[in-house]
Design brief:
Elements: H1 11-24, H2 32-38, H3 43-71, H4 73-93, H5 99-120, H6 123-135, H7 141-167, H8 169-178, H9 187-190, H10 193-211, H11 226-242, H12 245-266, H13 268-274, H14 282-306, H15 309-327, H16 336-360, H17 366-402, H18 408-420, H19 423-442, H20 447-450
Helix pairs in contact: 1-6, 1-7, 1-10, 3-4, 3-5, 3-11, 3-17, 4-5, 4-6, 4-10, 6-17, 7-14, 7-16, 12-16, 12-17, 12-19, 14-16, 15-16, 15-19, 17-18
Amino acid sequence: MSPATSPFSIPNIRLFIAFRVFFNARFYYPVFTILFLDYGLTIEQFALLNTVWAITIVCAEVPSGALADILGRKYLLVTTSLLMVAEMSLLAFVPLGNSTIIFSVFLVNRVLSGLAEALASGADEAIAYDSLVEEGNPQDWPQVLSVQMRLRSIASIITMTIGALVYDPSMVNRFLTWIGSGLSVTQQVSMRFPIYLTFILSLLATACAFSMREKPRSRAAGQGSTSRAALHKTLQAGAWLAKTPFALAIILLGTLYDHILRMIVTMTSQYFRLIDLPEASFGLIGSAMAVLGLVTPKIAERMVAQNSPVVNVWWVSGISLLGLIGLTGFYPYWGLLPMALIFVALMLVSFFTSHYLNRITESHQRATVLSFKGLAFNLAYGTIGFLFALLITGLRDGAKTNHPDWSGPTLEGFAFQGTIGWFPWYAAIGLAVTLLFCLYRLRGTDDYRQIG
C-alpha cells in the first residue's frame, strides 16, 4: 500500500479526531460545580466525588493500556464510549428529592467517568498513530495533533457557550417566549439540558469508536491468560521506561507541569470571582480561553519542528512560571492575562508529551506507555488536590481564629488567595528537582537533542 498523501485521508485519523472532539467537548463544563450543587449535593460531597473519580483513573490507567495493547485499542475505545453513554444516562434520568439516591447515582457516575477516561487514555492515540505509521508518514503526527486540538477548541467554544445558556432558566424562558411558546421551565428542568446535549455527544463518540478499524492482535506465545499477559505487558513497558531516560524525562516533566496547571484550571471560577468578574461572564470567558486553542497548537507544531526538546522545556517553564506569578496578584480584570498563559502552557504540555512520547515508543507497547503517562499525570493531580485542600483548610481556620468577625465568603477568599501564593514556589522547587534528576539520568545520551 502506497503512503497516504495527507494524514487526514486515513479513516482512523479522521475518526480519532472526531472521537476526541465528541468525548471531550461537554456542555456541562462551564457549570460543572454548581450542577452538582443544584442536584442537591454539598460542596464536601462534590470534593469527595472528584476524589473518587481521580482514584478510579489511577487504579485503571496502566492495566487499561496493557489490555489495549493485548486485546486491541478499538475494543477499549468502544467500551469507553459505552461507559460515557451510561454515565450521562445516570445524570439525565436520576430522580430528584432523595439526597441518598442522588449521591449514590453521582458516585456510580464518577466511577464510570473515571473508567472511561482511563480506558480512552493512550488507546485512541495508539490506534491513530499506528494507522499513520502503516498508511502514511509518522512525521505528520504533529499536524494531526494540531488539527485535533484546534477542532477540540472550536467544539469547546460552542459547547461551553451553549451549555451555560441552556442551564439558565431565564435564558431558556426568554427563548421560548421569543419563538411564541407558552411553555416555561424551572432550574430543576433546565439544569439537565447540558446533560441531555452531552448524552447526544456520547452517542456520536460511540459511533466513531465502532467505525474504527484495527488489525487483529496476536497474543504472544506462552503469555497465558489475558490477566497474566496484561501484567507481563505492564512490567515490560515499565522496564522500558526505567531504562529509557528520555521517555522518563518526558513523563516526569509533563507530570510536573500538568498537575500544577490543571489544578489552577480546575479552580478558575473561584479565581474569576475574586478578580471581580461577574458570574454571568464565566461561560463567555471559558469560550474565549478556548479560542487560544485555535492558535496554540499551530505554534506548538512549529516549535517541535524548529526547536530541540530542551528549548521547548524552557519555553513551557517560562510561560508557566510567568502565569503562576501573575495569578498571585489577583488583579481585577487584568488577572485574565496570567490565566490565559496557564491555558497556553497546559496545551503546550499536552502537545509536547504526546509528540515526543509517540515518536520514541514502539507500536507493541504504545498504549501501555501512554497509560503510564496518564497514571503519573492523574496521581500527581490527585496528590496536589489533597495538598491544596489541606492548605486552604489550614489558612481558613487560622484566619477564622484571628478574625472572628469575617464572613464565610471573606474567609474562603483569603484562604484561596494565600494558597495560590504558594504555587510559584511549589513549581520552581519542583522544576529544579525534576531537572536535576532528568539531567542525571540523561548524562551521556544525546537522543533528546536529535528528536524534533
